[in-house]
From TrEMBL, chain B:
Keywords: Electron transport, Transport
Species per Swiss-Prot/TrEMBL record: Duganella fentianensis
Subunit structure: Heterodimer of an alpha and a beta subunit.
Pfam families: ETF
Protein name: Electron transfer flavoprotein subunit beta
Length: 310, 249
């Protein structure tokens, strides 16, 4: 058995999600190979070769792989898929976009967002926004899987020394063209990779009010997040959204400020190690999952907290 | 130009589902069912394209039990011109649905298929991408903006860390994210009108599709419960607890 991991990268570096996916792949029981389909992606390839537990890195390099278009990357995966028992990708916007194309062409089911590997053909995955956990067994010859990063530790980024092999690049599909990208620039850690997250909800009352959270996030070196209610109200951009319809996170510390704790939000953060809730409503559902709660006005408590952290 | 919009009947998003005590699944007996919210957004988008004169016909499709006809009627009240139900009581996985939709697309020849990015019951997020692969069409998933003109569709996508824009040649697949639009409220006159719109019923066998499941659900369980912690009286206590008890700062 050999598992193939589709690396998520930006040509210059690997995304952290790739490391978590390698861990899940290793648990499937065999060798782990990594495919890096990119353009001038030498740095990403070098990083992939150093991941502990990876025995081979396959490189497909072509200009039309630069932006990770699903049509081209999926075709490349199919071109080298023969012989693999498992094909895995991170359950991120990147992996979710590509992998179902691969599964459909192989005429196999995809098992989405697994959080646990029980055996080589049996996996756990959340359904109904995490309100139930299904254990599913695949009857297909090849298991095509997306991996929820919060369910698996990251593989060590160094210590490996995988062989590198070049695969012939498939032809450009040509039906889809990359036009542009607007990436929010921030000095803060990325939401899904952060050790600490400070999130605001509808209780913030305005986009302006989120500024009060910035000194707290600075002190804690935290990423900033938000509930869907805050995003829908237009306070902050959508890529801050934590929840069923946003990002799934599991930091060491999650500070929920002015967040009531709707099911859809809890689905995105309830696996955090420690949860702190600050809310003026003592009945808010967020307190039922919080390790430490403070009932009170967030506009008084947050500055006090910043001061206390010194 | 014709647009196809597949819609799924799912447990209403306001219902908190319960796991059955025997662990075979979630209890959906006597639970309110509705159209998958992402599919409602897809129908709204298709309807707006028609209202803008860029599309001539919107066809809603559903796969599943007889009651999916109600979901299709809702779709026609939003704006679909007609409905097609692929009726089966079999458990349908995304691959099977993608195959059924491919068979219908071969027949109907739409230029655009707009789907919800995922259904809120199984949270698979697969059908649109699978359908695109089976048809050999380009795809733009997680759309927050769709512009249809000159034989192509330009789509802004919600990706990690921001937005990305792709231009696809037609025919193409688009899957919707939450911010694409806000679906309209269905009015009573439109519900009445929808009752008179044509609704065809077909079966997987008629389309020559084998829908046998590929996955076996061995068990469905409640997620591990997180127990409520404590309420601390002040910020100083909180910081002390975080430092000495939780050791996270």
């Amino acid at each position: 058995m050999v598992a193939l991991v589709i690396a998520e990268h930006d040509n210059a570096s690997l995304k952290g999600s790739t490391l978590h996916t390698v861990t899940a792949a290793a648990q499937c029981g065999g060798d782990v190979h990594v495919l890096v389909a990119g353009s001038n992606a030498g740095a990403a390839v070098a990083a992939a070769a150093q991941i502990a537990g990876v025995s081979k890195v396959i490189v497909a390099d072509a200009p039309y792989f630069a932006e990770g278009l699903a049509e081209n990357v999926a075709e490349q995966v199919l071109a080298i898929a023969g012989g693999y028992s498992h094909i895995l990708a991170p359950a991120t916007a990147y992996g979710k976009n590509i992998l179902p194309r691969v599964a459909a062409k192989l005429d196999v089911a995809q098992i989405s967002e697994i959080t646990k590997v029980e055996s080589a053909d049996t996996f756990e995955r959340p359904i109904y926004a995490g309100n139930a956990i299904a254990t599913v067994q695949s009857t297909d010859a090849v298991k095509v899987i997306t991996v929820r990063a919060t369910g698996f530790d990251a593989a060590a980024a160094t210590g490996g020394s995988a062989a590198t092999e070049t695969a012939a690049a498939v032809a450009d599909n040509g039906k889809s063209a990359f036009v542009g990208r607007e990436v929010a620039k921030s000095d803060r850690p990325e939401l899904t990779a952060a050790k600490i997250i400070v999130s605001g909800g509808r209780g913030m009352g305005s986009g302006e009010a989120f500024k009060i959270l910035e000194p707290l996030a600075d002190k804690l070196n935290a990423a900033m997040g938000a509930s869907r209610a805050a995003v829908d109200a237009g306070y902050v951009p959508n890529d801050w959204q934590v929840g069923q319809t946003g990002k799934i996170v599991a930091p060491n510390l999650y500070v929920a400020v002015g967040i009531s704790g709707a099911i859809q939000h809890l689905a995105g953060m309830k696996d955090s190690k420690t949860i702190v809730a600050i809310n003026k409503d003592p009945e808010a559902p967020i307190f039922s999952v919080a390790d430490y709660g403070i009932v009170g006005d967030l506009f008084e408590i947050v500055p006090q907290l910043v001061a206390e952290l010194g | 130009m014709k647009v196809l919009v597949p819609v799924k009947r799912v447990v209403d998003y306001n219902v908190k589902v319960r796991v059955k005590s025997d662990g075979t699944g979630v209890d959906i007996a006597n639970v309110k069912m509705s159209m998958n919210p992402f599919d409602e957004i897809a129908l709204e988008e298709a309807t707006r394209l028609k209202e803008a004169g860029k599309v001539t016909e919107v066809v809603a499709v559903s796969c599943g039990v007889t009651q999916c006809q109600e979901t299709l009627r809702t779709g026609m009240a939003i704006g679909a011109d007609r409905g097609i139900l692929v009726e089966t009581s079999a458990e349908l996985e995304p691959l099977a649905v993608a195959k059924l939709l491919k068979a219908l697309a071969d027949k109907e020849q739409p230029q655009l298929i707009i789907l919800g990015k995922q259904a809120i019951d199984d949270d698979s997020n697969q059908t649109g991408q699978m359908l695109a692969a089976l048809l050999g069409w380009p795809q733009a998933t997680f759309a927050s903006k769709v512009v249809l003109e000159d034989g192509k569709v330009t789509v802004t996508r919600e990706v990690d860390g921001g937005l990305e824009t792709l231009a696809l040649t037609l025919p193409a697949i688009v899957t919707t994210d939450l911010r694409l639009n806000e679906p309209r409220y269905v009015t009573l006159p439109n519900i009445m009108k929808a009752k008179k719109k044509p609704l065809d019923v077909t079966k997987p066998e008629d389309l020559g599709v084998d829908v046998t499941p590929r996955l076996k659900t061995l068990k469905v369980a409640e997620p591990a419960k997180r127990s409520a912690g404590i309420t601390v009286p002040d910020v100083a206590t909180l910081v002390a607890k975080l430092r000495t008890e939780a050791k996270v700062i």
